[in-house]
Design goal:
about 220 residues; mainly alpha; Four Helix Bundle (Hemerythrin (Met), subunit A); two-stranded antiparallel sheet; 9 helices; about 75% helix; about 5% strand; flat
Length: about 220
């Protein structure tokens, strides 16, 4: 939502970050790989039952992920391969976060008189939130329904990847006040992610009908 609603603001922030960290003379892909390293360390921390250390490592991983794109633009090293690797590692890091929380263990979610193990919602969030939201965008491009980059970036989404991870990060902080808060945050993230998936599907259908009316497909 932030990227699609406020592209100018997010681009300016990205460029400012890129200008500063380009001084270290590291290739953008190196920053991407460092993001993966800290994501893996965060996963290991959660497996070892350390919520605080896991939170710190994933925050660092997310910040490093914000660096690579800015550095690539500032240093004029933007490439399709770099964008591809960045997207793949983004998904790996998100999987590491969710799997780490599954192994860490969370309180069961009570709805009415039913107590449901939270790992079910974590798995659904992983599938719907990460795979389907990204797939709905990528497949619209692959089928050439939407080929313009600006239109792709305007795809609506109440909870895109950045907001989804921020929400889970807030849940990890709230865990220290009451563990059930994180379980509820993850459930909310699952619902909002599925809504985002539906938004993108309807957006693509609308664009496809418009292109068909124009006689382009």
């Amino acid at each position: 939502m932030l990227k699609s609603r406020f592209p100018n603001i997010t681009n300016r922030i990205s460029l400012k970050i890129g200008r500063f960290f380009s001084r270290f003379n590291l290739h953008p892909n190196t920053w991407t790989l460092l993001s993966l390293l800290f994501g893996f360390l965060g996963f290991l921390a959660l497996v070892q039952k350390s919520m605080l250390l896991g939170l710190v490592f994933f925050i660092i991983s997310g910040f490093l992920d914000a660096i690579d794109g800015g550095v690539a633009r500032v240093s004029k090293k933007v490439s399709k391969l770099g964008g591809y690797l960045d997207g793949i590692i983004d998904r790996i890091n998100e999987c590491l976060l969710l799997l780490g929380l599954m192994v860490f263990g969370l309180p069961n979610l009570a709805i009415s008189n039913i107590s449901i193990p939270p790992y079910i919602f974590l798995a659904l969030l992983l599938f719907f939130g990460s795979a389907l939201v990204s797939y709905s965008r990528a497949y619209a491009c692959q089928k050439r329904i939407i080929t313009d980059e600006k239109t792709l970036n305007k795809m609506p989404g109440v909870l895109e990847r950045t907001e989804r991870l921020l929400l889970i990060g807030i849940g990890m902080i709230l865990y220290f006040f009451n563990p059930i808060f994180l379980t509820w945050i993850i459930f909310i993230a699952f619902i909002l992610s599925f809504i985002t998936f539906l938004q993108r599907v309807f957006f693509t259908i609308k664009k496809a009908r418009r292109v068909k009316d124009e006689g382009k497909i």
